[in-house]
Amino acid sequence: MMMRNDLPVGFAGIPGAGSILRSSEPVSLSPVVSQAASLLEEAADLLVMHLDFAAAVDRCEKGCESLLGDPENEDADSAGELKCSLCIVGIQALAEMNRWRDVLPWILQYYQDPESLPPKILELCFLLHSKVKEPYVMLEVGGDWLRNANNQHLPSYGLLVQLHLSHVLLPLGHFAEADKLLQGCKVLSKEQRAEALGNIREKKQQWLQKEKEQPIPEEQPKVAWKRRMGPMSQKVLTILARLGRMLGSLASQFCAVPYKKTLLAAFLLCLLVMKLDPASPTSLPFIYRLTQLFHQAQSAAFAPHFKPPVQD
Fold first, then answer.
1. Which end of the chain is more exposed for a tag (fewer CB within 10 A), N or C?
2. Domain segments of the chain: what residues?
3. Chain CA centroid to CA 176, Å
4. Backbone φ/ψ region at 232: left (φ over 0), alpha (ψ -120 to 50), beta
5. How far apart are the C-alpha atoms of 251 and 260, rounded to whole Å?
6. Higher confidence at residue 11 or residue 114?
7. 2-37 residues labelled b (16+ CB within 10 A) or e (exposed)
């Protein structure tokens, strides 16, 4: 379970309702924004003080929905800040309930375009999915956000590039994409670029070394044998095994003497093999052996000294 102190983006970084109300006169805020601010305070209290995570998510959803439903879009800056804070509290509450798989779909209800996600939310998502060892969830979302020209001018862009590299691309082995991202990033200092390049080389070497040291599993004899035989011959052998059991039962119903049963079985098996796979080299030994069996049975049956068994 994801605990509150597991994620570095803590509540100290959340611009809460109190700071919004203190920064502006209460009478200047629209009723929708005031209601959302109240829901944010309630959600944070439920999360931190009462540990009622489901109720906290509920308050966050109501707050975000109220902001989305504001037709006049008054106090756009305050509304955007509140929505971001509500989503951060909601993410934390979902993580506490071990519902991290719901985090990204839940956020995208309120930010339909992933490229418009606030940097704090994207940072939290990087850290969360890295924590649960599912970095691929953020591969497309993070890449799209970082490639957006509007986001590249934000103050936190360099930090998010580093997070995307260390928590998504490198764990997934996407080294070429990591190099490309780093080359196109102009906001990192020379020291930061050098450190990132060193991390890429180190992870790539570890990745290659792991592949080299990983033993190739020995092929099971049964699987290797089937592969050498080929699909048609495998089919023939399977049918022969079944037919052998069927012929034994069938022949006993109309053949009273053993030599006739052997003769009939060998003859039918020869016909079956030659009909199913006459051109396959692997079928030739079986055809030859069955033909021998047929002739041996025939010779034994019709030899001059043969005396059929006396029947009662």
1. C
2. 4-213, 221-302
3. 21
4. alpha
5. 8
6. 114
7. beeeebebeeeebbbbeebbeeeeeeebbebbbbbb
The model carries a pTM of 0.62
Element holding 37 (H helix, E strand) = helix 31-48
Tell me if residue 27 falls in helix, strand or coil.
helix
Axis crossing angle, helix 53-68 with helix 31-48, rounded to the nearest 10: 170
Measured between alpha carbons, how far is 70 from 31 in angstroms, rounded to an integer?
10
**Sequence-separated (6 or more) residues with CB below 8 Å from residue 1:** 95, 96, 98
User: For residue 124, which amino acid is it?
Assistant: L
How far apart are the C-alpha atoms of 210 and 232, rounded to whole Å?
38
Cα 264 to the center of its chain, rounded Å: 55
Name 67's Cβ contacts closer than 8 Å, sequence gap at least 6. 32, 33, 36, 79, 82, 83, 86
- Tell me the per-residue pLDDT of 18-69, one tens digit each, with 9 for 90 and over: 454 444 444 467 888 999 999 999 999 999 999 999 999 999 999 999 998 7
pLDDT digits (tens, 9 = 90+) for 117-159: 999 999 999 999 999 999 999 999 999 999 999 999 999 999 9
Q: How far, in Å, are 89, 226, 227, 234, 249 from residue 230 at the CA level?
A: 59, 6, 5, 6, 30
Token pair recorded at residue 106: 């839940």
